[in-house]
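task queued by scheduler; priority normal; single chain, no ligands, no partner chains; default sampling; output format set to structure tokens
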Amino acid sequence: QVRLVESGGGLVQPGGSLRLSCAASGFSFTYYAMAWYRQVSGKERELVAGINSSGSTTDYADTVKGRFTISRDNTKNTLYLQMNSLKPEDTAVYYCNRRHSIVNWGQGTQVTVSS
């Protein structure tokens, strides 16, 4: 059974940092490009960052480029998102999933950026 479990969210002040983790199971994690997405209540889910299967290539939404870094550890079947210089507009529920051939979504992790 495919399972994605996000963690690491929380309340942080503007300018602060958080590191999100996503533990994947039930599929061959090593073979898949992965991505982080986020969703604000009432809006569509958007792609934040993507990474290829080996971790050698990454891409980012313009809104987070230069502030967020996506990475993965294929030995641990875990995806990461390092978020620096956080802004109030980064407030959202963050999810991980495959970049293509989306599977069932996890519960996500709430990130709130507020003073």
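post-processing summary
- The chain has a mean pLDDT of 97.
- The radius of gyration is 13 Å.
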